Amino acid sequence: MAMMWIRIILLVAACMLPLSVEAMVRHYKFNVVVKNVTRLCSTKPIVTVNGKFPGPTIYAREDDTVLVKVVNHVKYNVSIHWHGVRQLQTGWADGPAYITQCPIQPGQAFVYNFTLTGQRGTLWWHAHILWLRSTVHGALVILPKLGVPYPFPKPHTEKVIILSEWWKSDTEAVINEALKSGSAPNVSDAHTINGHPGSVQNCASQGGYKLQVQPGNTYLLRIINAALNEELFFKIAGHQLTVVEVDAVYTKPFKTDTIVIAPGQTTNVLLKANRAAGKYLVAATPFMDSPITVDNVTATATLHYTGSLGSTITTLTSLPPKNATPVATNFTDSLRSLNSKKYPARVPQKVDHSLFFTVSLGVNPCPTCANGSKVVAAINNVTFVMPKVSLLQAHFFNISGVFTDDFPGKPPVVYDFTGTQQPTNLRTNRGTRVYRLAYNSTVQLVLQDTGMITPENHPIHLHGFNFFVVGRGQGNFNPKKDTKKFNLVDPVERNTVGVPSGGWTAIRFRADNPGVWFMHCHLEIHTTWGLKMAFVVDNGKGPNESLLPPPSDLPKC
C-alpha cells in the first residue's frame, strides 16, 4: 500500500513538472511607428517599434522558433536585421535591405521566421536600411534551454543595458546633407544609456537611467552597443565587472573595471553589489584613437543601492581618455573562448580560402557635391554598389546582371598599407561584387586597416556566421611571422570584430550556411560610403545543406 502511494505521489509530481522542455514558437508584433520623443530639452519625431526607444526586448530560449510580424506605418522603407542570429538555411529572414530581401514598403508587412539553433546569450535587432537603426533597435535575449545552467554563478537578476547615440536633428536629414556635400556627417549630440543621456549641460531637467540594486546580490548586465558610429568605454564607479560572454558566446571569465564595446557588439558582465549603500556613476564615453571628430558627451546613469536616499551624493569615477588605446587593447586581448567540453571552440585548423582584405577610405569624383568630390570607403579598393533587387533573390532565382562573383581575394595593389607614404590616387573601383564559397569550406580572412586619408578602428560584422578571432596586431600583417602566433585553441568567437587603427585582425570561419551573407563595417557612415561586400555560399548536398525557398510574403521591390 505504501509503495502504491509513493508511486501516486511521484506520478503527480511528474505531472506538475513543466512539459515544455522542448523548443517553443514565440510570436511578436512590431508596429513601426513615428513617436515624438524629448531628449536634451528638445522634442523631435523619431521612428520606433511599438512607440518605444529603445525598442522592445525579444525573449526566447535556445532552439526556439521566433516569428516577428513587422508592420510598416511610416513613410520610409523598412527592414529589420536580427544581429548575430545564424539564420541557418533561413537567409530570407536576415534582414539587410537589398541583400537578403527587398524592404518592407510603407503600409506593408512581413513575418520574419527564424530558429535560434544552438545559440544562447545576448544578441540584438535593428533596422538595416538608411540610418533608421539610430532609434529602431532593441535587445534579443536568448536564454539557455530549460534546466541548463549558465557556466558561471547564477545571477539574482538580469538587466539589459543599451548604449546608443542621440541627434537633436533628424538622422535621415543628417546623412542626406552629408551625402549632398560629399563630406562627413555631423556627429551626434549625446550618447545614451537605455535611451537617456543622463545629466548634460544646459538641460538640468533631463533625467537618467537608474539601475536599482540590492546589497549582496549579483546582476547579469547584458550590454549592447547600438551606437551608429562610435566605439564606447563603459564603466561603473567603484565596481569591478566580470566578463562572461561576448556576442552570445561564453568566454573565460575575467575581471575589469572598464569594458570597450564597438557598434554591433554585445558583452555580458556580472556585477556584484558589494559596496556601501549609496549611488554610483555609470558612464559610457567614446573611444577614438585616430584624428577623427567624435561626440565627446559622456552618457551617465546611476547605480542606486536600495534604501539610499535620493539626496545621497553620487560616487564618481575617472574615465579613460578617448584615445586610451592601451585600455582598449588590454580588454580585447583578455577575451578567450570558454572552450569547455560542453561549449568547445571548433576553430578550423585547415584553410580552404586564405583571403586578405584591406579596409580603407577614398575619394571619388562627384559633380553634384560641394567640392566636386566625395568621401567613399572600400574593401580591396571596391566600393560596394547596392543593387535594385536583393542579392539573395538574384542568387536563388539565377537572375543575371545583378551581381558578379569576382570580388578580389587580395588587394589590387600591394603597398605599405599603414605607412606614412600612402598612394596619391585615392579613387576606388565601384561594383556589386561578391566572393563565392563552396558549402562547408573553411575561410581565413585577414582584415587590414590602411592609412588612406586616415587610419581608423573598423568594427566589421559578418552576417550568417560566428567566426574565431585568431590574431590581431599593429602595422602590416606579416604572413610568415604573424601566422605562427595565431591562437587556434581558444580564440574568442564572435560576429563583430574591431580592426585596430593602423593594424590588422585575422578571423577564421566555416561556410556551413548556404545563402548570401553581408559583411560590412558597423560604423554606419562607412557602410553608407561603401565599406561592404557579400559572400555567396552555395548549397551543399541534400535538403539539410540547402537554402530554403523564400516565404510567400517576401516583400517585393
Automatic annotation (TrEMBL):
Keywords: Apoplast, Copper, Glycoprotein, Lignin degradation, Metal-binding, Oxidoreductase, Repeat, Secreted, Signal
Residue stretches making up the Plastocyanin-like domain: 34-145, 159-308, 407-540
PROSITE patterns linked: MULTICOPPER_OXIDASE1, MULTICOPPER_OXIDASE2
Note accompanying the cofactor annotation: Binds 4 Cu cations per monomer.
Major localization class: secreted
Keyword Cytoplasm: no
SUPFAM superfamilies: Cupredoxins
Function of the molecule: Lignin degradation and detoxification of lignin-derived products.
Protein name per the record: Laccase
UniProt organism field: Glycine soja
